[in-house]
């Protein structure tokens, strides 16, 4: 874990080294000041030597200024290094997430990834800054103060040593118990963020069903869980402060009492006693700093583990050593394909799939909910790898392609249509960032989106809100289809992507595909048979298997499932999940 995080320091390594060095310089100067103060009292004030007071006083000012400079530079470099680490962690995590396959993404919830990129990284940033500044300063201050105290009087200095050992033991015990609660609390942030994300993204549904009170209570429960765990952790940590203060005052009383006797016996000077009291405060305040470091580290350990889980997650899909860099055509072949989402699972989502689709064909895919229609097409662009068998595109196994090359030639319009904040042009150019305005408009014409776009006051420059919340479901679907067309793909997959479009517009889109992109292989998943009946061939899916494959007429004659659904839909509606007579 340490090695994983250390790699992210990168260009801020020099700042990370400079910070503790400057803090050490500050500590050395602070340690000299009580020693010089003792000299002023013993050799200047008590003897009436004004010149000595001026000389040593001037030296104290120099030490103070050097210490001030060291502290300021240490703070500056510490902030630079910690903020740089946080920046690199976020960038590395985000970049690594982009390389994840769907199976990798399935392991982490969106809310969990957001928490790792925000709250957990901030915890690491704060802990790293504390470590750079205080992890050097506090131990160095304790060591230097102890050395100076033993040089002045070993008997009195032994009081510090005993106090430091007692406090150190107590600190380890307290932090050990607090860490257990901190490790539980940060995963709870996932639940909190999930509740917020779900509520905000579905705020229209919440208001439509008047569920504001229910959502507020759900959020309060998630927030209450975090509150309780933090309180339990702080109950352990809070003992640290009073214990430190009690020890400080005990040390001051003991040193003052014993030191006063030694002054009377002329074995200790007044200036030396003043120095010892100052070193006492330095040692015990440094122990306070160390306790804060341990608490911060215990809080950040859980965050560090969660971040490393993401950074160390190995993408399950990778390019071969010598990938194929060209997709010849849009032909598709499934060779005895079995597929399951979990490795080693005996239950397959797809079982013994054998298909041979020619380049340029239009293939309809229908089936009930859960029949694995989407799973079937996800294998074509290698969003998942098959468990057994092979999927070939253009005659080549998809595992032999460079994934970017393959996915650039397979355009997918997913079930859940997503638009990003920005203009319509900017959203369309996700398909082709170099597309001209004319090419964007032509793609929208094919997707039957041009008319409604031109009805907007700003036309193609209309701003799309996050998630496409300011356009209707059908408009969003057509914009996503146009975006896919701009890729000029060899294979176009529409995963129930015209469900929110009326039948007349659906027919226009299919006619445009047939006439304008005849060489592109088109796979259309639909619930309405009217959306696929004019396809070259139609696949009927049932429970992860192919129940039928042929033309509309062939399936009507030979496939009972297809015939029943067709008759049900033509005799009064219903979809593929509603069989005739139900």
Features:
582 residues, alpha/beta, six-stranded mixed beta sheet, four-stranded antiparallel beta sheet, 19 helices, 12 strands, 10% strand, elongated
End-to-end distance: 58 Å
Average pLDDT reading: 84
Q: Based on helices, strands and strand pairing, what is the structural class? A: alpha/beta
Largest sheet: 6 strands, mixed
Order of strands across the widest beta sheet? 6-9-10-3-11-12
Q: How many strand elements?
A: 12
Sheet-strand content, in percent, reads 5-15%
Rg to the nearest angstrom? 35 Å
Q: Spans with pLDDT under 50 lasting ≥5 residues?
A: none
- Shape descriptor reads elongated
> What is the count of DSSP helices, taking H or I runs of 4+ residues?
19
**Overall helicity:** 55-70%
Offer a concise description of the structure.
The chain has about 575 residues and is α/β, with parallel strands linked by helices.
């Amino acid at each position: 874990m340490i090695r994983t995080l250390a790699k992210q320091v990168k260009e801020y390594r020099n700042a990370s080294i400079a910070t503790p060095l400057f803090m050490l310089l500050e500590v050395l100067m602070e340690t000299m000041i009580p020693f010089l103060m003792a000299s002023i009292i013993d050799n200047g004030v008590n003897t009436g030597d004004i010149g000595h007071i001026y000389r040593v006083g001037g030296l104290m000012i120099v030490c103070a200024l050097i210490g001030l400079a060291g502290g300021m530079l240490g703070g500056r470099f510490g902030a630079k290094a910690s903020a740089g680490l946080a920046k690199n962690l976020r960038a590395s995590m985000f970049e690594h997430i982009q390389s994840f396959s769907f199976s990798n993404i399935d392991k982490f919830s969106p809310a969990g990834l957001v928490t790792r990129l925000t709250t957990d990284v901030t915890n690491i940033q704060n802990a790293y800054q504390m470590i750079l500044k205080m992890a050097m300063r506090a131990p160095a201050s304790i060591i230097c103060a102890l050395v100076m105290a033993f040089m002045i009087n070993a008997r009195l200095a032994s009081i510090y040593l005993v106090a430091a050992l007692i406090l150190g033991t107590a600190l380890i015990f307290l932090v050990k118990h607090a860490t257990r609660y901190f490790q539980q609390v940060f995963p709870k942030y996932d639940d909190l963020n999930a509740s917020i994300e779900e509520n905000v993204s579905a705020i229209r549904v919440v208001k439509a069903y008047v569920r504001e009170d229910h959502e507020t209570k759900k959020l309060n429960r998630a927030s209450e869980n975090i509150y309780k765990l933090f309180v339990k952790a702080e109950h352990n940590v809070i003992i640290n402060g009073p214990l430190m203060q009690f020890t400080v005052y005990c040390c001051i009383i003991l040193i003052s009492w014993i030191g006063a006797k030694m002054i009377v016996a002329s074995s200790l000077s007044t200036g030396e006693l003043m120095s010892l009291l100052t070193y006492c405060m330095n040692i015990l305040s440094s122990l306070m700093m160390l306790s804060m470091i341990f608490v911060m580290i215990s809080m950040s350990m859980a965050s560090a583990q969660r971040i490393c889980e993401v950074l160390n997650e190995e993408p399950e899909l990778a390019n071969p050593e010598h990938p194929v860099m060209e997709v010849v055509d849009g032909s598709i072949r499934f060779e005895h394909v079995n597929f399951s989402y979990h490795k080693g699972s005996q239950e397959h989502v797809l079982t013994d799939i054998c298909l041979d689709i020619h380049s340029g064909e239009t293939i309809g895919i229908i089936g009930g909910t859960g029949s694995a229609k989407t799973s079937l097409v996800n294998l074509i662009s290698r969003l998942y790898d098959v468990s057994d068998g092979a999927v070939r595109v253009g005659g080549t196994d998809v595992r032999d392609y460079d994934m970017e090359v393959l996915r650039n030639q397979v355009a997918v319009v997913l079930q859940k249509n997503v638009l990003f904040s920005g203009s319509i042009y900017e959203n369309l150019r996700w398909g082709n960032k170099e597309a001209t305005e004319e090419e964007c408009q032509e793609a929208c014409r094919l997707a039957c989106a041009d008319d409604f776009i031109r009805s907007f006051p700003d036309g193609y420059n209309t701003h799309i809100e996050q998630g496409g919340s300011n356009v209707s479901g059908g408009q969003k679907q057509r914009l996503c289809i146009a975006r896919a067309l701009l890729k000029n793909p060899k294979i176009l997959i529409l995963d129930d992507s015209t469900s929110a479009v009326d039948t007349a517009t659906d027919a226009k889109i299919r006619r445009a595909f047939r006439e304008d992109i005849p060489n592109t292989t088109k796979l259309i998943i639909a619930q309405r048979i009217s959306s696929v009946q004019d396809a070259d061939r139609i696949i009927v899916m049932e429970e992860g298997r192919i129940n039928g494959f042929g033309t509309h007429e062939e399936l009507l004659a030979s496939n009972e499932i297809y015939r029943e659904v067709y008759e049900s839909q033509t005799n009064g509606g219903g979809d593929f999940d509603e069989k005739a007579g139900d």
